[in-house]
Amino acid sequence: MEKFAGIDWASAEHALCVVDGEGRRMSERLVSHDEVGIAALCRELVELGVLRVAIERPDGILVERLLEAGLEVIAVHPNQAKAARARFAVAHGKSDRFDAYVLAELARTDAHRLRSIRPDGDETKALRALTRAREDLVGVRVELANQLRAQLDAFWPGALVFSDVDSPISLAFLERYPSPGDAKGLGPKRLAGFLARQRYCGRRSPEELLERMRSAPAGRAGELEEEARRAAVLGLVCALRPIVTEIAELTSQIRGALAAHPDGAIFAPLFRDPKTAICPATLIAELGDARGRYPTDAALAADAGMSPVAVESGKHRSATFRRACDKRLRGAVATLADSTRHWHPWAREVYLRARNRGQDHPHAIRTLGRAWMRILWRCWQDGAPYDPALHGNLRRLQPVGG
């Protein structure tokens, strides 16, 4: 008789439930999240002849080990698991063991509605690790930069003379002049020497930068407060410096990994600047290698958050924003759509038509992103780079000037 398993994942212990083909529980226990526990779990499932395993996450060490053992693993979205609990219990109780049983039942009865996990290649996994690590570091950088800007606004806004407070030259300036007292003797010659040492390539002269600094509002912090804020500025600068350096290093590694990836050439023509790396790398990392993951362009558009959710009841019909999607993939597709509307004739036409219909900018970007999904999915499925000469709607625009 066929057997099915559900695993309620946790950081320390996983709840396991195995059911037979008629839904009877055959085994229930907790599995420790260590090498001994995971190895024993895989052996047990193989020995029991489990057909498929349901779990509420698509990646991680546990999922990789289950796939390595030759088991079919299906990913169940937490919203789907939550909605299925009411099928098996009248009361609104919840426990890890019960959730494992619900997942096992979903593996037994609803596998045709759920997606089987297909492992990606090593190149894609490496690219995914790099892009996600960089995204996390960028989030930390933005948070620390906002804190630094808030400190300067509170007692020395004149220090914000460079375009970005977290740029290397701005951090070097704040490290040397973290308070108004430190910059009292700063003149054109001394500032020119500082800019030369930092290889400043901006368009503003030392005199212009000094004028901006002196024309800013003067703070009224007392001696003790100024010293405290000076220490805060130095601490934030010390925290930002290695993060900015590491982001630049990860960007360089992403660029190299993208050039070596088999799918790198597919997405390159979608971007005007050939040096663009982060957005195409994120697209490849989130799409993965398994073409069967998205059997239609509609499935890809839904996972990318580019298609709305229809709500119909009686005479009421509406479309709402899709929140349950791959947020990273949605961000990459939105970036692609927003960049192409500036230079690609067809993308600009789709965007402008959406705006003329009354859509705001984010909605129009999603409309354009949905249109791009049809093209991107076809290129991805065929393994062929985007060719403007084969884009029929683009060719129809070109005779009239696009």
Q: Which fold name corresponds to the CATH topology of the largest domain?
A: Helix Hairpins
Annotated CATH architecture of the largest domain: Orthogonal Bundle
SS-derived structural category: alpha/beta
The mean pLDDT is 92
Shape: globular
Task: Profile the largest sheet.
Answer: 6 strands, mixed
Work out the count of structural domains. 3
**Secondary-structure element pattern, one letter each:** EEEHEHEHHEHHHHHHHHEEHHHH
Radius of gyration: 27 Å
Question: β content, as a range?
Answer: 5-15%
Number of helices: 16
Summarize the amount of helix as a percent range: 40-55%
What topology, given as strand order, has the largest sheet? 3-2-1-4-5-6
The end-to-end distance, rounded to whole angstroms, is 63 Å
Uncertain ranges: none
Q: How many DSSP E strands? A: 8
Structure write-up:
The protein is of the alpha/beta class and 402 residues long. The protein folds into 3 domains: 3-116, Nucleotidyltransferase, domain 5 (2-Layer Sandwich); 124-258, Helix Hairpins (Orthogonal Bundle), CATH 1.10.287; 267-400, no CATH class. Helix content is 54%, strand content 11%. The protein contains 16 helices and 8 strands. It has helices spanning 35-48, 61-68, 78-84, 96-109, 122-155, 168-176, 188-197, 206-215, 223-260, 264-267, 278-287, 297-303, 327-340, 345-356, 361-382, 392-397, and strands at residues 3-8, 13-20, 25-32, 50-55, 72-75, 115-116, 309-313, 316-320. The strands form 2 sheets. A 6-stranded mixed beta sheet has the order 3-2-1-4-5-6. The protein has a two-stranded antiparallel sheet with strand order 7-8. Helix 2 links the parallel strand 4 and strand 5 (72-75). Helix 5 (122-155) runs antiparallel to helix 9. The longest helix is centred in the middle third of the chain and has 38 residues, at 223-260. The N and C termini lie far apart (63 Å). The model has no long low-confidence stretch (mean pLDDT 92).
